[in-house]
């Protein structure tokens, strides 16, 4: 790629407008999702607020499907022909539609989509706080002072990690901004590559995004220091819960209303528009093959990612390599890198006559999924591995057990819950991906998300909503089965 592409790109004022838009969108989304997620996490874990598990599950639902489904749902509520316009008048629809197709709408949609990241990481780190530290502080301070001065500082690395991930994922999000017609960097890069076939210009235009990802990765590394990511699968001993007193009922009602706003309303909009028999029938007819492809690609990628992630987690957790931290950082870098950049890179690398045997096949898409989501398998397995004492493996080594048998005979059975969780999480993320399938799926073998985005240009609203319902159903199936199996296994244990 010549330097002329960089000169043309960075000399174009429109590029810096796109960059400003992306930074603004990411900053506002991070602020809203961060504040809301941290407060909810503290309320669920540290107070006597009831139905906390139910609320956490409700807020986590958007992780199962691409953010553009939330945008479609809000469009069916606030768009010109949406539910609100039909119930009131066209002038109201014009006003709410203008609000949706702009920064306010995009911030609400992406905050709803990425809030679960902040919520779940806040819960994770709060569970890991040593309760004796909080109990000792309560001898001199009230519960809210302990929370502010002891608990929150202890989980600061987790908060920084969560906010960094939300910021970077928002910077790289393509589907929702494309649907809402918001001009941001990922949309411009995708347009250059897929519509104009100018991969050099697309690569040059993506350079500022790579710089932002590297800066975010630096922040994450500084926050965690030399610690590896850790998570407790079992519920640890918790300190005394903070009583909400007379605020208990208003807090519960407020949290439920927020869950209804962030999750219930857009899902209801999709159901309202796409649940007719005619729409569902057309969606199945036009999207069934794509749904099958989605499941096959996600299954293959999740299996490979889990296998590779297991051995990478071993190297990282056991510090088996000098550069273990850099290996972990590389995985996170690829995870937060926009899918459009990974897709453009893979096309540039494999689009040659000698490598056409993989370029023209779904294998390239599976390889893209592996590059993007290996960090999920690695970190989830490493989290489970962090709870196992190294003495188990050391004792076997002293007894003369070879490494292969130690890993597959001792560690693998003990890490089965973490491995299954890593597989399910990777499967869902591959299933919901938009950018990589749009760029890498072979003609006639696209995924359901790619088919839905393609049909948005000329498909009916009913068809698009029905396809979104099909995507949600595909994601809920394996997660529901995994949840039932998990509960059944715990009862037998």
Molecular structure report:
With 493 residues, this protein is mostly helical. Helices cover 78% and strands 0% of the residues. It has 25 helices and no strands. The relative contact order is 0.12.
Largest sheet: none
User: If you compute it from the alpha carbons, what radius of gyration comes out, rounded to the nearest whole angstrom?
Assistant: 23 Å
- Backbone structural class: mainly alpha
Provide the CATH architecture of the largest domain.
Orthogonal Bundle
- Count of alpha/pi helices: 25
**Mean pLDDT rating:** 83
Q: Give the uncertain stretches in residue-range form.
A: 228-236
Name the CATH superfamily assignment of the largest domain. MetI-like
Number of strands: 0
In a nutshell, what does this entry contain?
78% of the residues lie in helices and 0% in strands.
Main traits of this protein?
493 residues, mainly alpha, MetI-like fold, 2 domains, 78% helix
Helix and strand topology:
Elements: H1 3-10, H2 13-46, H3 52-60, H4 67-78, H5 83-87, H6 90-100, H7 103-127, H8 131-137, H9 143-154, H10 156-172, H11 175-179, H12 185-195, H13 199-224, H14 248-274, H15 277-317, H16 324-336, H17 339-350, H18 356-359, H19 363-385, H20 390-398, H21 403-414, H22 416-432, H23 435-440, H24 448-455, H25 461-492
């Amino acid at each position: 790629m010549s330097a002329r592409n960089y000169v043309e790109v960075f000399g174009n004022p429109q590029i810096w407008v796109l960059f400003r838009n992306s930074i603004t969108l990411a900053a506002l989304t991070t602020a809203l999702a961060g504040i809301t997620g941290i407060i909810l996490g503290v309320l669920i874990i540290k107070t006597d607020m009831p139905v906390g598990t139910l609320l956490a599950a409700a807020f986590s639902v958007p992780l199962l499907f691409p953010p553009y489904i939330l945008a479609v749902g809000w469009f069916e509520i606030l768009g010109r022909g949406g539910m609100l316009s039909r119930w009131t008048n066209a002038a109201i629809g014009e006003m709410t539609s203008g609000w949706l197709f702009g920064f306010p709408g995009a911030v609400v949609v992406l905050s709803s989509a990425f809030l679960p990241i902040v919520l779940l990481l806040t819960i994770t780190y709060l569970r890991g706080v040593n309760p004796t530290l909080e109990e000792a502080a309560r001898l001199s301070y009230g519960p809210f002072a302990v929370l502010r001065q002891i608990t929150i500082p202890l989980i600061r690395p987790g908060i920084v990690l969560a906010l960094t991930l939300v910021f970077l994922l928002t910077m790289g999000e393509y589907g929702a901004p494309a649907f809402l017609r918001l001009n941001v960097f990922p949309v411009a890069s995708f347009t250059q590559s897929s519509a104009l076939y100018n991969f050099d210009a697309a690569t040059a235009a993506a350079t500022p995004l790579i710089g932002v990802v590297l800066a975010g990765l630096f922040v994450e590394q500084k926050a965690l220091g030399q610690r590896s990511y850790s998570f407790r699968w079992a519920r640890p001993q918790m300190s005394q819960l903070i009583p909400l007193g007379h605020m208990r009922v208003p807090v519960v009602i407020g949290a439920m209303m927020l869950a209804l706003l962030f999750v219930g309303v857009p899902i209801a909009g999709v159901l309202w528009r796409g649940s007719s028999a005619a729409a569902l029938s057309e969606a199945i007819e036009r999207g069934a093959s794509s749904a099958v492809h989605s499941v096959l690609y996600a299954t293959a990628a999740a299996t490979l990612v889990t296998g590779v992630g297991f051995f990478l987690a071993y190297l990282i957790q056991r510090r088996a390599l000098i550069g273990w931290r850099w290996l972990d950082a590389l995985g996170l870098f690829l995870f937060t890198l926009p899918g459009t950049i990974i897709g453009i890179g893979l096309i540039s690398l494999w689009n040659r006559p000698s490598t056409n045997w993989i370029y023209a096949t779904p294998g390239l898409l599976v390889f893209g999924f592996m590059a993007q989501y290996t960090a999920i398998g690695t970190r989830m397995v490493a989290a489970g591995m962090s709870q196992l004492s190294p003495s188990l493996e050391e004792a076997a080594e002293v007894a003369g057990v070879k490494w292969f048998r130690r890993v597959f005979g001792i560690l693998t059975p003990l890490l089965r819950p973490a491995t299954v969780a890593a597989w399910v999480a990777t499967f869902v993320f591959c299933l919901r991906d938009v950018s990589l399938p749009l760029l890498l799926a072979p003609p006639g073998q696209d995924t359901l998300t790619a088919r839905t985005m393609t049909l948005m240009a000329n498909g009916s609203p009913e068809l698009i909503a029905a396809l979104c319902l099909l995507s949600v159903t595909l994601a809920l199936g394996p997660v529901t089965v995994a949840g039932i199996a998990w509960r059944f296994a715990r009862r037998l244990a």
